[in-house]
């Protein structure tokens, strides 16, 4: 007799079946591989032994406390270890003590939060399996109410309200670990302090031609010409040359004194020689285009235009401030600075008064 024939003589209820009712589907000839349903729930030791539950609670709390201590250690590392301190760590070799301390403490802080959460979920939170048939995306009011009820029940079973030790230490760990990110902001660079307000110019510093590297005399500046200068003593082989010239770069033009409109500009000049910062006040591009008939200088990046006969004020473009002027004079036949710029050079920034 064929296999099909044999099955035809056997009642459906005698075929192998899974759990009936809410636990699974009944196997039939048409569906011999039915869903067997969920296995019987097995209680954990923490579910039946309160001492075991307390041990798990203390273990979770310990993870969170260690995370807090590691975060404090992360912050303390910035104070304890200088940035140039090198240590030997096997098998890594010679590495930065600061980087090693930061990586170790932050790794422990994050690991302990994760380990504590996992141990809490596996040993103390409810692990009863809940099966629910699929339903349409648009939930009925009854379904929504059931979801909220399930959520409240799950929140109650998590023990957040009853197990205060876990809750408090978890909140402490989560509150402290973001401080690591705040401290990491310190690595964006050194604090500016007053570096944005000061340059290499000060009283008695001679103006040096940036092309010839020779001190400038008044007769070296011709009417209608544009000359670039730097402070005396600033050399191109200086390892800080580029960071310093970005603030110290100077341009000089000679204008007939009767054509200078701004009173302070006239007082800060010498025989019509005016000195202005070469750095555009928009985004810091170097200004290099001069129109001698109008006494205008143009920034090639975004076409900001400044009038050097009227206090370096902006007459066109996105720049928000006039070019800072350097007060100059002549001593022993050479041009020199009387003081630093009266205001910060370059782009506008939040401290500009």
What can you see in these coordinates?
With 353 residues, the chain is an alpha+beta fold. It has 2 domains: 45-188, no CATH class; 207-337, Rieske Iron-sulfur Protein. The protein is 33% helix and 14% strand. It has 9 helices and 13 strands. Strand 7 (289-291) and strand 8 (296-298) form a beta hairpin. Helix 3 packs parallel to helix 6. Residues 247-337 form the Rieske domain. Residues 1-10 have a biased composition (Basic and acidic residues). Pfam families: QcrA_N, Rieske. InterPro entries: QcrA_N, Rieske_2Fe-2S, Rieske_2Fe-2S_sf, Rieske_Fe-S_prot, Rieske_Fe-S_prot_C.
Summary of the model, kept short:
The chain has helices spanning 3-8, 45-48, 50-80, 97-123, 141-157, 164-176, 178-184, 241-248, 263-267, and strands at residues 86-89, 93-96, 207-209, 226-231, 250-254, 273-277, 289-291, 296-298, 305-307, 313-316, 325-326, 328-331, 334-337. With 353 residues, the protein is an alpha+beta fold. It has two domains: 45-188, no CATH class; 207-337, Rieske Iron-sulfur Protein (3-layer Sandwich), CATH 2.102.10.
């Amino acid at each position: 007799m064929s296999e099909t024939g044999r099955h035809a003589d056997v009642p459906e209820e005698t075929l192998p079946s899974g759990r009936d009712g809410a636990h699974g589907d009944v196997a039939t000839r048409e569906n011999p591989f039915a869903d067997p349903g969920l296995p019987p729930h097995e209680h954990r030791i923490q579910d039946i032994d309160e001492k075991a539950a307390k041990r798990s609670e203390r273990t979770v709390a310990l993870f969170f406390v260690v995370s807090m201590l590691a975060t404090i250690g992360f912050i303390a590392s910035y104070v304890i270890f200088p940035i140039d301190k090198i240590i030997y760590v096997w098998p890594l070799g010679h590495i930065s003590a600061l980087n090693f301390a930061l990586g170790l403490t932050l790794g422990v802080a994050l690991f302990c939060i994760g380990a504590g959460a996992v141990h809490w979920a596996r040993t103390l939170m409810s692990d009863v399996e809940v099966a629910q048939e699929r339903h349409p995306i648009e939930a009925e009011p009854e379904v929504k109410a059931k979801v909220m009820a399930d959520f409240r029940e799950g929140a109650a079973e998590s023990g957040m309200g009853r197990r205060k030790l876990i809750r408090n230490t978890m909140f402490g760990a989560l509150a402290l670990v973001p401080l690591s990110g705040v401290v990491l902001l310190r690595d964006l660079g050194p604090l500016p302090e007053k570096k944005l307000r000061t340059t290499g110019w000060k009283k008695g510093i001679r103006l040096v031609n940036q092309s010839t590297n020779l001190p400038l005399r008044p007769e070296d500046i011709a009417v209608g010409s544009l000359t670039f200068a730097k402070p005396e003593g600033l050399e191109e082989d200086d390892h800080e040359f580029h960071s310093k010239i970005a603030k110290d770069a100077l341009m000089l033009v000679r204008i007939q004194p009767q054509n200078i409109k701004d009173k302070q500009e006239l007082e800060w000049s010498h025989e019509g020689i005016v000195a202005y910062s070469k750095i555009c006040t928009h985004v810091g591009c170097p200004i290099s285009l001069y129109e001698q008939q109008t006494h205008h200088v143009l920034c090639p990046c975004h076409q900001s235009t400044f009038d050097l006969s009227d206090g370096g004020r902006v007459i066109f473009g996105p720049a928000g401030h006039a070019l800072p002027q350097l007060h100059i004079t002549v001593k022993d036949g050479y041009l020199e600075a009387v003081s630093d710029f009266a205001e910060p050079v370059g782009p506008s920034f939040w401290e500009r008064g």
